[in-house]
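Whether sequence alone determines local backbone shape is best considered at the level of individual chains. When preparing material for the folding task, we compiled for one chain both its residues and its backbone structure tokens. The sequence in question and its structure tokens are set out directly beneath this paragraph.
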Amino acid sequence: MAVNAQQKENYFLDLVKTTTNKKLQLSSLDSLIALTRNKKLESFARYTEKYVTLAIELKNYEKAIKAAINGCHTINIQLGQPKRALNLLTSVEDYTSTTENSFLLGGFYVKKGGIYFNLNELEKALINYKISIQNYKSKDSIHKADAIFFSGQVHFELSNFLKAIKQYKLAANYYEKLGDKEYMYLTRESVISIYGVTGFEEKTIQERKLLIAQKLEENFTNGLGSNYYNQSLNYKKLGNTKQQKRCLLLALKYIQKEKKTSHLLPIVYSQLSKFYTTNNDIVNAKKYLDLAYNKLHDRNKDSYTFLFYYKAKCYYLYKTKQYRQAKTLILTLLSKERKSNRGDFIMEMNLLLSKTYEVLGDSQKAFKYHKTYTKTKDSLRNITKLNALSYYQTLYEAEVKEKEISKQKNAIEILAKKNEAKKQLLFFGSLAILLSILILYLYINRLRLSRKKKFKEDYAQKLLQSQEKDRQRISKDLHDGLGQSLLLIKNKAIISNIPEIEILLNNAIEEMRSISRIIHPFQLTEVGITKALENLIIQIDSNFMATYIFGDIDNIDSKLTKNQEMHVYRIIQECLSNIMKHAKADSAKVELKLQGKFISILIKDNGIGFDFSKKYNDVNSLGLKTIKDRIKLMNGALKIISTRNQGTNFSITIPIT
């Protein structure tokens, strides 16, 4: 099976090296990444780096970002190379602006925050976790909860315990809503760890016992290995070696079963080796030391995980009387860890180095390193005391704040009761003033709207009157000027006996008269409104053979003013014109009835209909607006019913004044 996997790897490697097709190279690298994931860590890292570079070259930025994110855990945690992982993320950071994928953006900054956390650059870690929280959306709730949880861990490392607890609780709320038990328990473990760092070892152990018992009762084993490992550390601080060993072995049992915490295996092996060394069980010490090394063989020797192995090895070398090798290794480790904040490690190594120099006969250096050990130990005790003080100070400040808020609330309630009547009076007085202002505003607004309406109506009337005067003038000019000229030409054509020109001139004269009548209906003054409307219907019917137009017109002569007669004529003319142009109707009817003090007009067709509101709001549709304005000037009412493919009814009512 392994040979088969190696053959596949070689096949895709050859493709990457030989093909000039960049897309095929990218696909082959993707296959190589899948083949080496969690198996060949260094190969996986190299293939990921090549994939990211090629994806950027092909402008597949989302693929590049995704690959960089997916490769981070292996490089940062499993290989223990956080700076290399940071370089990988930095190579795609400029391209994060090209995507709106909230999952990728949030994930990018979570991974970056995790790298800075491992590098002990905690402020930078916190900044990146905050950015990731801002980028995640509601659909990414589980990942947002993780980012909140990680920010709580940073606050914990910065000794901001109140903020840490706040973030842990917020993350726990997310996990509870999402039904994620594993991380609900993890947040509880994180809160418990705050007791430990503040020096309350027994309280820490008791709370963790309850957590472990609840997990076992629910048969929920995820994370139990980590719980037992942390419990072993607290028992060690209390000097309870029996319980320390029991918890370490239980931690090993559960971690071996769980893939998620497999990265802790070399740490537990190293701790067991150190435990057996200090308890003079050299066989088991060597066994677990070798197991730890075998799990670490392909990781960076400067990684945090390797530190546990080196510490266990130092104890083993000392116990097996390999003092010079122990001295060399301890000095190397102390040199590397001088600038770190791993106080427990530095304290232990200084004590072991002091013992080593004592055995080697160098009492001066033995005293020197014992002094450093004592100083570091005192410093750690002071830090623990400060943490405890900070914890109590936080609780005290929270309690004082709560009391102040409660006191302020009581004072506000008393003041509110005393001023209740005054407030009511002020409220009702203000309400009365507001109502008065509102009434005055409405009255003024009504006057303004009324004036505006009258202005618009006057403007519309003057505009229509002006149009009619212009039309009358143009019609008269056509009749008296162009008409007379055409008649003279016609007479000359008759005299010259040119019948073709005579026919053309007859058509032109008739067309000119028709245009003149449309522009201004002189019939209104010559034969009256009733006859003029009848003639209009006959004229339009004879000109448009596709549509049959007929009418039923009551005599309304002398019932309207001259302006009103003109409006009625124009309204019917415009409606019939619209039917001819747009309705595609077979027939149309005009009814004009005299009903007491009202004239009712009904114009209907059986055409295709139209959408009135759409047509009325069309800036190019002036006809409907003009009809409405004319009816408004006569204080009339308009009702339009139009149905698609069933026709249109224009119903108009005009009062007789």
Observations:
- The beta strands are 548-553, 587-595, 598-605, 637-643, 647-655.
- The chain has 26 helices and five strands.
- The chain has a mean pLDDT of 82.
